């Protein structure tokens, strides 16, 4: 090759597309397991964690199902199903264990830059809400993964725990509050940046403003990436033995371009988010918690309203929402053609079917789009009766793409996350949204097991050092859970006051 050709073509063992939480987590795991491998990250923006992983683009609720009521839905017979809550909680414990290992082994720096202790609470009003939350409490309070859960219908306790929510509220109004004092607030942007710093200092090449435009399989089974420099316009190619597409909403397009049969029929439905934000110290000091309630009748799980304490770059604030916005973009800084360009013959019917079968979602989006600032503050008053319009500002959150999977001749809209990988394990990607970054470690271990089956057994001892509960059921081993929870609380400095 000529020197010019060398500059326009390269090879690597691992190509990570996107510099968000998922890619950074997978990169850190692989760097510990295979320190000799060459790893390269390609990020279309000018830095890491600027899309979905950015602190203001998500609620930072370290999703552990302590307070999120959509993970413990009411069943048709009036019972409460806690199976998903238990699953999500266990996956978050996996993240806590790996983060603790990472802090102990200088992979991550000061944990107070990205994780803080914040109580998690669930709030409902009305007698029906009280009955539901009492059943949820009865099921979770005795579960090994939900220690220290409290529950009250006493107005004085509401005033003590969340005074901002009690101010202006009638003591006669029926309500219920369940609470955990050991919840967390996570700045996934800061966490990701620490992981990327570790990867950089251990030899990983990170290419910012480099967008992967195309993927095609080589005859030897490797993948050729066409990469465009968004600053200069120059293009080059990179051959990679393994590719992970951690590009958030951009993952669907790239997996489609790969041509792997596993992506056939899968579509995406974009949903934007908006928040009300308050940074008034007098109000912020009156609410030190993340408080979730129930979605309105007919609304999708993603619409669960919550009032969150946020600690970002050492500064406290409050977020309330989410309020849905809608554009055809798959990324906050994406293209207006993202949705139409994702349509393929194989996913056309499933995507069209969603408009007919998900009328609750359609109605919800129309209602949300019609809301002005005053209407949003009215919704906030269910949580903060004394809220004033001028105390809160609108901020635009990240863009989410919900997965549409084929189901017979139609399609099903899924609200979780899904790993898609080629049968030979040479390429994988992550689709979907919540619980997302909170369960990144569990998801990336799943990628390792799917894509490197011949190596996984050899890696297992090292992975068990990083994640002591690997392959075990924490709910069935309360002593292991307690031991690791105490360890992570200490290591991540969650026993210190915010």
TrEMBL record:
Chemical reaction(s) catalysed: (S)-malate + a quinone = a quinol + oxaloacetate
Keyword Flavoprotein (UniProt): yes
UniProt KW keywords: FAD, Flavoprotein, Oxidoreductase, Tricarboxylic acid cycle
First-tier enzyme category under EC: oxidoreductase
BP term (GO), one: tricarboxylic acid cycle
Signal peptide: none
UniProt keyword Transferase, yes or no: no
Membrane-traversing stretches: none
Database matches in InterPro entries: FAD/NAD-bd_sf, MQO
Any GO molecular function: L-malate dehydrogenase (quinone) activity
PANTHER family referenced in this protein's UniProt entry, alphabetically: L-2-HYDROXYGLUTARATE DEHYDROGENASE, MITOCHONDRIAL
Family that this chain belongs to: Belongs to the MQO family.
Protein name, UniProt field: Probable malate:quinone oxidoreductase
Gene name per UniProt: mqo
């Amino acid at each position: 090759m000529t020197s010019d050709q060398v500059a326009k073509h390269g090879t690597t063992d691992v190509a990570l597309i996107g510099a968000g939480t998922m890619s950074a987590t997978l990169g850190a795991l692989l760097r510990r397991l295979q320190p000799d491998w060459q790893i390269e990250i390609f990020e279309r923006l000018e830095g890491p964690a600027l899309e979905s992983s950015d602190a203001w683009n998500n609620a930072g609720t370290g999703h552990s199902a302590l307070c999120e009521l959509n993970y413990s839905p009411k069943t048709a017979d009036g019972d409460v199903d806690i199976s998903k809550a238990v699953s999500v909680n266990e996956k978050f414990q996996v993240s806590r264990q790996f983060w603790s290992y990472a802090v102990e082994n200088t992979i991550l720096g000061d944990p107070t830059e990205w994780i803080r202790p914040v109580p998690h609470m669930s709030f409902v009003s009305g007698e029906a809400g009280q009955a539901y939350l009492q059943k949820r409490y009865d099921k979770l309070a005795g579960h090994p993964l939900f220690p220290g859960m409290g529950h009250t219908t006493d107005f004085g306790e509401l005033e003590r725990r969340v005074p901002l929510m009690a101010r202006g509220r009638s003591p006669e109004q029926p309500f219920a509050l369940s609470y955990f004092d050991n919840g967390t607030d996570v700045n996934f942007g800061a966490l990701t940046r620490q992981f990327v710093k570790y990867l950089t200092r251990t030899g990983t090449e990170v290419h910012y403003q480099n967008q992967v435009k195309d993927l095609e399989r080589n005859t030897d089974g490797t993948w050729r990436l066409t990469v465009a420099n968004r600053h200069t316009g120059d293009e080059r190619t990179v051959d990679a033995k393994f590719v992970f597409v951690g590009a958030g909403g951009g993952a669907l397009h790239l997996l489609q371009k790969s041509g792997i049969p596993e992506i056939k029929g899968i579509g995406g439905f974009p949903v934007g988010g908006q928040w009300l934000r308050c940074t008034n110290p007098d109000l912020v000091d009156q609410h030190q918690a993340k408080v979730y309630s129930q979605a309105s009748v007919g609304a999708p799980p993603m619409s669960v309203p919550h009032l969150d304490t946020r600690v970002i770059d050492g500064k406290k604030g409050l977020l309330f929402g989410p309020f849905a916005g809608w554009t055809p973009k798959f990324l906050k800084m994406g293209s207006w053609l993202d949705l139409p360009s994702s349509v393929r013959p194989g996913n056309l019917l499933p995507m069209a079917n969603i408009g007919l079968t998900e009328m609750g979602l359609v109605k919800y989006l129309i209602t949300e789009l019609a809301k002005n600032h005053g209407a949003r503050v009215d919704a906030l008053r269910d949580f903060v009766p004394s809220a004033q319009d001028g105390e809160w500002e609108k901020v635009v959150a990240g863009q989410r793409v919900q997965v549409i999977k084929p189901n017979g001749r139609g399609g099903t809209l899924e609200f979780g996350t899904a790993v898609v990988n080629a049968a030979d394990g040479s390429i994988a990607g992550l689709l979907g949204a919540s619980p997302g970054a909170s369960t990144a470690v569990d998801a990336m271990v799943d990628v390792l097991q799917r894509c490197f089956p011949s190596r996984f057994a050899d890696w297992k001892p090292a992975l068990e050092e990083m994640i002591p509960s690997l392959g075990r059921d924490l709910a069935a081993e309360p002593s292991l859970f307690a031991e690791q929870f105490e360890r992570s609380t200490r290591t991540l400095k969650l026993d210190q006051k915010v």
